[in-house]
Amino acid sequence: MPARESPVDACPGALRLHKAADGPLARVRLPGGMLTGPQLTALASLAAAFGDGHLELTSRANVQLRALREADPAVLAARLSAAGLLPSETHETVRNIAAPPLADATIRALVTDLDRALCATPALAALPGRFLFAIGPTTLDADVAALPVADEAFAILFAGHDAGLRVAADGVVAALLAAANAFLAERAAQAGSASDAPAWRLHELPNGPARVAVRTAAVLGLPTSTVGAGKPADAPPASVATDGLPLFPPPLEPVRQIGFVREGMGDPTPTLTPAPTLAPAPAPIGVVRQGDGLVAVGALVPLGRLGGEALRLLATARRLVVTPWRGVVVPDLTPEAARRWARALDDAGLPVDPTTRWAGVTACAGRPGCAKSLADVRADADSTSAYSDGLPVHWIGCARGCGSPSGPHVRVEATPSGYAVTRQPDEEMFTGDTARAVAAARRI
Question: What pTM was computed for the model?
Answer without folding.
Answer: 0.88
